[in-house]
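As described in the Methods, two query proteins were run sequentially through the folding procedure within a single session, without resetting any intermediate state between them. The first query and its resulting structure tokens are shown here.
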Amino acid sequence: MIYIIKKPNIGHPAGVPGPVVLDMHNISRPTLPLRWWVFCACINLFIVSILGVLLRYKGIFGLPALDYNYLLHAHSHFAFSGWVTTALFVGLLYILDDSGARLSRIYRYQFWLNQVSSFGMLVSFMLQGYAPVSIVFSSLSVVFSYWFAWCYWRDGRSVLPTVVRRAIGFALFYLVLSSLGPYLLAYSMSHRLGDRAFYYNAIYLYLHFQYNGWFTFGVIALFLWWASREGGWREAGGRGLAGIGSLSKTFVALLGLACIPAYCLSLLWTGPPQWIRITAVIAALLQLAAGFFLLRLFVRNRRKWSASLPPAVKIIWGLAAAAFGIKLVLQTLSVMPALGRLAFGHRSVIIAYLHLVLLGFVTLVLLGFFTTRNLVTLHPRAVSTGMAVFVSGVLLNELVLLLQSLLQISAVVWAGAGYWLFGAAVVMCTGLLLLTAGLVQHALVRDGNQPTH
């Protein structure tokens, strides 16, 4: 429907109608249930936390009904697809819709394709691990990534701010590129290569371009879009970040350029040729340079951004920024042979790093973004309490993993680490239970206050 708005008859004789003007801002367009989809994403995050509790419980007390490796595969795949990819999907659609683009119904089908593949992987991996059924659902997830990347780039390249568009371009490119990992893994298994290095490097390729590509550039795009709207910066034509354009564009360009060679950081454990080590060092330096420009961006705009953020989001995004900085430093330190051997030789170090990025950085940026756009509202006490409890659980989990890693590197066994990690998992799960319950309460109250027709 198109609304026709008549302007007041200023300068026209009485009874003579004024000019009829088309109000483009009030042209209705098909809307997708983005708020509902955010709720679904939060439910999925809660499910991820339940799986985390089960993993920690099984590690301490045992749980014969569940295979540990199967449960671990279900936990990781559902965290990637059910939580992060779903949340990024909704967040990117939100900024596209708010930028004035017409959202196609195709995205509705893509959302449900992603949910079917996510829950399919959740169930099939828990029951049988890597097997024909779980591989089918994993393949559906790859189909979703290709389909979404193509549709979103087609719809968003002409309406999004320049630097946001570049960050999204990197995110979508690395989302597609990460699918090389499962292909190489399938090749290794089908040809029975039996090469341990090839097998793990295929897994690391997938993890690298998911974590450092799709996840990282996705949340960076959401943050920069927020800055363009709330900070009041625009390019000519209102499409960018004129006040911070140079810094933000340099940051995105350096980080994007470093991502492919940074995969060499994941190969250092194999004792690779010298050129791979040199490439890894160059990539680490590029990432540090990108972090320097991001820091300058924060320092230059801290007052404006601080004034635009709710207090809770200031804390959440502050922790996320710290996690991102620690991530860059750890990746740089891994190029040192002695430290690299320590990192790759201890499972607790790898787990700590993966949780730092997924929970401390990516998840906190996503929850903060949804809060700034009122897609997750902190008004019900249950939601704000749940958010605080969850963040506390994330901090406790990282502190315990850090301490466990340091002790393990020092050849000291911490017998009580499993209990502390189980406690941290319970705290995170409790926080997400409160958060999702509060969102349900808020939705019921909101719907109950809607006028009936």
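Immediately afterward, the second query was submitted; its sequence and tokens are:
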Amino acid sequence: MRVQPEQLYAEMMKAIAEKHTQPNKTDIVESCFWIASKYWEMLKKNIDKSFFEYEGKEINFFRNIKPKFTSQIQFYTMLAEVMLFVPEDIELKTIYWREEMKRYRRFCEKHKEFVDYYENKSVYLDSIYFVRVAPDWVPAQQPASYDADKHFCSSHDHLVRGLLANKMYYEYVREELGLVKNEI
């Protein structure tokens, strides 16, 4: 019996929430990255050919289901990268997090047309953006390791993942700025 994507997502988010009780941020980020990666692999194993039998189901997968999993992977990757550079000095830390607040805006500006399309819940390009790529498709940039399997890749699902991950990151940065302000 195949597990439904919603059930896998709920299990993943519960496992991630449990890891957030750990005291060490580095351990949290690493654990959550691996949890999200594991559940993305589990989801792929639960998807059979009938899942993409109808274009509507395929579009739903790439527009709504896949990004829930892969955005978690990207978010924790972003956190792992950023944690290496957070300064100890309070003033420098404040400047650092203020600069990081701009990351989400830069993403949205860079991909404005797509972000507007997605956030306005437009659908007229879904059959182009959210269907599987052809076997001979060559992406404009090297895909993330978890997007290397073309059977589970559309031309624009990486932008949905990026948008969702950047939103989560923005909220994380807001919290960090609040903590820094409390330290002053």
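The radius of gyration is 18 Å. We note this only descriptively and draw no conclusion about the first query from it.
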